[in-house]
Amino acid sequence: MKVVVTGTRGIPDIMGGVETHCEELFPRIAGKGVDTTVIRRKGYVRHSLTEWKGVKLVDVDTPKKKSLEAIVHTFKAINKAKELGADVVHIHAVGPALLVPYAKCLGMKVVFTHHGPDYDRGKWGFVARNVLKLGERMGCKFADEVIVISEVILDLVARKYNRHERVHLIYNGVPKPGMCDDPGYFEELGIEEGKYILGMCRFVPEKNLHHLVEAFKRTDARGCKLVLAGDTDFEDAYSLGLKKMAREAGVVLTGFVKGRKLHSLLTHARCYCLPSSHEGLPIALLEAMSYRLPVVVSDIPANLEVGLPYDCYFPCGDVDALAARLQQVIDKECHRVQYDMSLYDWDGIAGQVMRVYKDLLK
Pairing relation of β-strands 55-60 and 51-52? Predict the structure, then answer.
């Protein structure tokens, strides 16, 4: 079996939820004996590799412009998949799914993973939102198999496109936590173990990090700091304004981090906060839960689906309510929470995806 993957910027160590999903999933697929190739966008590549953990990597040039790069990359990736003789093209996200019919016309089987209605993200204008909606329709109508990462998206696919067959609910996963210490890194950041609240995501409007900064300013911090781990793919007015606002409020900005530095931040945070207005099924939240962190998250459907206790949630967009939740975290003793993570095991998830491939090729 030969599988070619597109719809992701690439792997490994590239920022983004879809990228993290693919980084965890496809080495496990390759480990099951599947000839697996991920087509990467050259402008995002951090490591010049032709193979990683058994996954073949092919880099293609794409314009690094948010309105064009996904569709150009997907077009080139589908052509490459045909050239490689792919049995299955696995397309991720609703934007790239616009070209599902093209892949079908070339005679290939297509699996489409719906990671969430990206057209709801604040960064898109009118035209881009409608193109993304069309991509969702093309993926849901014409893909041989559709994978959704949450019940919220499963309901959306059924309700909007009347698709009830060959749709598979397969959750996002989370790897085993890499508990560790990095005193030198903490000294560099000027933070102490258990004395910071962690926000970890891309700096884009729908993550509402500006609400988190504003809410933290309204607390009696009692020596706690706010740490924002992440950055943006495209520096724009929002990300520049957020960074300026954060620096003026004394927030610690780490930039994009992976590996030991990120693991140490997750190991020793007082809590994790995700105030976003839009998610599919947030890997960052699942990762924080795997480190047994208390969490404070907005009450959007994707976060509610995780099934956290009531006092973990606050009304999305309500800065005063968020500040009150953060104050409760600050006032309590630093502690850890044991969550049931059995649904989010990547090995089990890889097995479910393999069954989709095998059923498709029968």
Answer: antiparallel
CA end-to-end span of the chain: 11
Q: Which residue has the tokens 């004395």?
A: 195
Which is nearest to 144 in space by CA: 87, 96, 95? 87
Is the pLDDT at 46 greater than 90? The verdict is no
pLDDT at 122: 65
Alpha carbons 242 and 202: distance in angstroms, whole number: 11
Rounded Cα gap, residues 236 and 251, in angstroms:
20
Amino acid code (one letter) for 197: I
Peptide bond preceding 96 in cis form (omega within 30 of 0) = no
Amino acid at 219: T
Count other Cβ atoms within 10 Å, centred on residue 231.
17
Q: What is the pLDDT of residue 125?
A: 78
Contact 349, 168 (CB under 8 A): no
- Determine the pLDDT at residue 210: 97
Query: Which residues have C-beta within 8 Å of that of residue 154, sequence separation ≥ 6?
Result: 148, 167, 169
149 three-state secondary structure: coil
Q: Is the pTM of this model over 0.85?
A: yes
- Write the CB contacts of 209 (distance below 8 Å, at least 6 apart in sequence): 199, 201, 203, 228, 242, 246, 275
- Residue 79 tokens read as 């052509």
* Residue 123's pLDDT band (cuts 50, 70, 90): low
Asked if 197 and 329 count as a contact pair (C-beta separation under 8 A), the reply is: yes
Q: How confident is the model at residue 64 (pLDDT cuts 50, 70, 90)?
A: confident
Alpha helices in 201-318 (DSSP H): 209-217, 237-248, 259-268, 283-290, 301-304
- The pLDDT assigned to 127 comes to 86
Instruction: Inform me whether the pLDDT recorded for 359 exceeds 90.
Output: yes
Calculate the CA 107 to chain-centre distance.
30
